[in-house]
Write a structure and sequence with these properties.
Layout lengths: L1 H11 L11 H13 L4 H7 L4 H6 L1 E3 L5 E3 L15 E2 L2 H15 L3 E8 L5 E8 L6 H5 L24 E7 L3 E8 L23 H12 L4 H12 L9 H15 L3 H15 L4 E6 L5 E7 L1 H10 L2 E4 L3 E2 L6 E8 L5 E9 L4 H15 L5 E4 L3 H10 L10 E4 L1 H6 L1 H5 L1 H5 L3 H9 L6 H8 L1
Parallel strand pairs: 10-14, 14-15
Antiparallel strand pairs: 1-2, 3-7, 4-5, 5-6, 6-7, 8-9, 9-13, 10-12, 11-12, 12-13
Helix pairs in contact: 7-8, 7-9, 8-9, 12-13, 17-18
Pfam family, one: MULE
InterPro entries: FAR1_DNA_bnd_dom, MULE_transposase_dom
Protein name: Protein FAR1-RELATED SEQUENCE
Amino acid sequence: MITEDLVKMSSNQGYVVEIVYENLYYSVVVILFYIFGEDISDVSNTYCSTDNEEVESGCMVTPGGHKYYVPISVEDNLKPFIGKSFQSLESGIAFYSEYGLLSGFNVRRSAEKTHSDHTILSKYLVCHKAGFSDAKLNCPEGSRSKIGKRRRTMSGRCGCEAKLVLKYSPGNIYIVYNFIEAHNHPLVPEDSRHFLKGSRKMSTCSMNFVFDASKVNIGTMKSFRMMKELVKGYENVGATSREFRNFDRDLKAFVGVADAQMIIEKFKVKQETDPCFFYDVDVDPAGNLTKLLWADSTVRRNYELYGDAVSFDPTFNTNKYNMVFAPFTGVDKHNKCVTFASTLLSKEDVPHFTWAFEALLKAMGRNPVCIVTDQCAAMKQAIPKCFKETNDFPASRHRLCMWHITEKFPLKLGHFLCKETEFMEKIKKYIWSSVIEPDEFEQGWK
């Protein structure tokens, strides 16, 4: 037949015929169809583009030249049909959603009809590309609406008419009342269906990974890339970076302003398992956390052994509440830094420093022999008040940090002496040594 010869001619030439009225080949086929009454369904399928996505989508063409796509990779028992019944509305929605994922499109819940007793009588489930965007419907062409501005995002809606209608039936069951299978857009190919919104779901493992990564200040994008490397590919993650960011956002919203109470509850649990764990807390009249000190059994043991010289450094600020993180540290017998306690303070004034030093005494039970700080006027007043002489312990000696002192050498002695001569190298040899004898220091100082 002439139609078969046309098909062979197009395939031999390697030419994919576009199905439009302006195309000569297709016009001839349409004319022959109306003259001879030939069935050109096979011809239409041949003329459809041989692109892999369209082949997987089951591309078909109407005699009018319009393409439509029918899923062809779904088994018959997984396809809905008119008259199919479900025990509940949610089971029907879940069935169609699963069918959509296997076919290559997302399912969106649409209109519904409800009885006076709130029973849903009918429910429409449509393709995610059904309808058109509000901007196209409401805004005049060539103008921009100033009312109800939205984010500048691309709309994928193209008026797809694929849908499933579930209707209520006596016996609390729902029956498929209407089912339109054809789509007016290509379906997502099988190797990309894991990016569909319905397929993207964070597993418990991914949630725990994001939570643990946030504890060590690893952002959601970096944790997403790390997760991709662990599971050997984006398709195995089960979610996109957007889901990772949304989960982190929802987690922070869930915690909200209760994070201070959460850490107190955690300390209480830790104190039950470790009797030597110590913490002290103080709040303002509004109930907001303003002061916190904690020390576990290990750091308290460190203080007992190496707590003669203590350094207090309130130079670190936290990100969210701008609270000061101030650790009490020292040096062990191996010349390694050890921690004695940690504090969070909302302010750097005399009352806050006084509270921190008194809480340290509660935890450790004795004064340090020497406490080293920077040149803070508030600490200069708080230290003699807290670490004063008692019947059991002498008063602590307050000394300034060597680093802060050496930083002021150029200002006090002049830049020429410090920068252009060997003075700094000579003096550091004696002031930075922890094992030097007094006579050797005096000789070196002279």
